[in-house]
Amino acid sequence: MEGQSVEYGNAAPRCTWDFQQGAPEKNMNSVGKMEPKEKESCMQKLIEDVKFSLHETLTSLEEVWDDIGIKEEEKEVRLDTVATHIQELLTEMLNEECELKAKLELNVVEYKKELEQLYHDLHLPQKPNPKTSLVALENQLRNDVDTLNKEKHDRLKWLRRIRAEEQSICVELVMTQHEINFIGTPSLEQLRELEQNISFLKSEKSNDVNSLK
Hints:
Blueprint: H1 36-68, H2 72-121, H3 134-173, H4 188-211
Helix pairs in contact: 2-3, 3-4
């Protein structure tokens, strides 16, 4: 799942919004989450703000209905419609956030699997996962996957260059090309050993040239 990312916008934890004054400041802990007391305070503030805004809106609606001449029975029907719309909106938002969380959790699992394979392929020790929020963990793992995939690509490119150079020199020296004893992505040590063999072959080529003078 190289390069895959989740479109979650500003998914970092944030405090609630003051309808009159804008967003308050946030205090985040070491793993990118709000402190429990501030989280409770922010949620309570949102509830109070929503209650105030809802009360004002419903009061204005009732005044408009009175001006129009809407009967009490019809008001009840309209209020039921308002309640339904609010509930549907909240349910839709909750479902979207739950889907986001599930997607992040799935990505974390997939990235961990891919990282495990990449660490194995590259002969590297596996790093422990950082203790952080879900969105930060998903982002970190995705970056690690991209970094190791680039490392794998670079090593294979390095190997192809070495083998091509080695083959060219072996043809000139009428020698059999060195056989490699690994499959897949070479370790850095294996690549350095192949580079040393190239240096040896170049030295042999230079000696042959000098012996013909």
